[in-house]
Amino acid sequence: MYFDTNDLDKYVEGKKVSIMHGGDIYRNSIQHDFSVNINPMGMPAEVQWVLTEAVFHANKYPDIYHERLVEMTSGIFNIPENHIVYGNGASEIIMAICHSIAPKKVLLLAPCFSGYETCVKGACKDCDISYYSLSEDNDFEIHHDILEHIQVVKADLMFLTNPNNPNGKLISKTLLEEIVSACEKAGTVLVVDECFLALTGEERENSLAYDISEHKSLIVLRAYTKTFAIPGVRIGYCLCGSEAMATSLRNHLPEWNLSMFAQMAGVECLKHMEYIEDSAKLIEQERRYLTQGLSRLGAKVYTSDANYILFKCSELDLNKKILEYSILIRECSDYNGLEKGFYRVAVKSHGENEKLLSALEDLLND
């Protein structure tokens, strides 16, 4: 029997609940979802066709070693195949990292992606979580004093997002390299989440993926979710600085963790890298349009290099009121270091961005 996702409302006692990660389109009537940061160009047509074809292969077990995917990824980053680990989305890999390393102390930024803390608390009992606080006065940018903080804390594990989420600011390559060195001296395994990096248009200049073999305690995390607009397929991977680390991560992942759909779609995605370049150009143009529009409405907009924008305004229930326009935005008070009044919106197509600004103008002017 076909299951209509709209029927999910029946299973939450008639209540429309909000999932803080965003994307809760199943318990709200949504036409435009600005709460998740997906490539506004949408899924490449070739990938959609391959996903349709995958139905005819669903009667087979997928390749347990993801051989074709690993081979292509190895060629892109010039890294040995045994340093590459694939997972059912980046979130599965984050949990595997926490289980594998079993840290007693973890260092996180505040604010940053809340999924790290969720995995740490779920996988590592009695783990001490330390925070490096980003300043609102500095647009939540990371500065060189983080190097001293790394040496003082001496965490077993540190998570870093580039660009940072929710503010979308890139970390300079120079500072990144200094952070890697500081973590090596402190005995800290560093995970750099680059899931949004390709859509900034500055991936090659800022990625640590291309020289990861020089750093044994470095893990670079990536996903197809945002880049190729296939969040429902669930496919991500990480590049490890050492074979031993990659082997340990695999031991904490289930067998056949990538479906036939994920593997076939992933292989097809890697054939269309020019799509990413075109996407980055569109995002830069539309980010500028949205930033100007939000500022014109009186919101405090924080400088972003990514396909999402963090802003602050006096309306504390904006995320609830804008649902009347069938628009979903990300309320950010659950981020450590943020409070009510902070919101994040994705950069989408021009038509959708116009509708967002029009709805916000009605609400904020009222």
Short structural summary:
The chain has 366 residues and is of the alpha/beta class.
Number of helices: 13
CATH class of the largest domain: Alpha Beta
Number of strands: 13
- The figure for the number of domains is 2
Order of helices and strands: EHHEHEHEHEHEHEHEHHHEEHEEEH
Give the SSE layout.
Layout: E1 32-33, H1 45-54, H2 67-77, E2 84-87, H3 90-101, E3 105-110, H4 115-123, E4 128-133, H5 145-153, E5 157-161, H6 173-186, E6 189-193, H7 203-206, E7 218-223, H8 224-227, E8 236-240, H9 243-250, H10 260-269, H11 274-296, E9 300-301, E10 308-312, H12 318-321, E11 327-328, E12 330-331, E13 342-346, H13 350-365
Parallel strand pairs: 1-11, 3-4, 3-5, 5-6, 6-7
Antiparallel strand pairs: 2-8, 7-8, 9-10, 10-13, 12-13
Structure description:
The chain is an alpha/beta fold and 366 residues long. The protein contains 13 helices and 13 strands. It has helices at residues 45-54, 67-77, 90-101, 115-123, 145-153, 173-186, 203-206, 224-227, 243-250, 260-269, 274-296, 318-321, 350-365, and strands spanning 32-33, 84-87, 105-110, 128-133, 157-161, 189-193, 218-223, 236-240, 300-301, 308-312, 327-328, 330-331, 342-346. The strands form three sheets. It has a seven-stranded mixed beta sheet, with helices on both faces. A four-stranded antiparallel beta sheet has the order 9-10-13-12, with helices on one face. It has a two-stranded parallel sheet with strand order 1-11. Helix 6 (173-186) links the parallel strand 5 (157-161) and strand 6. Helix 5 (145-153) packs parallel to helix 6.
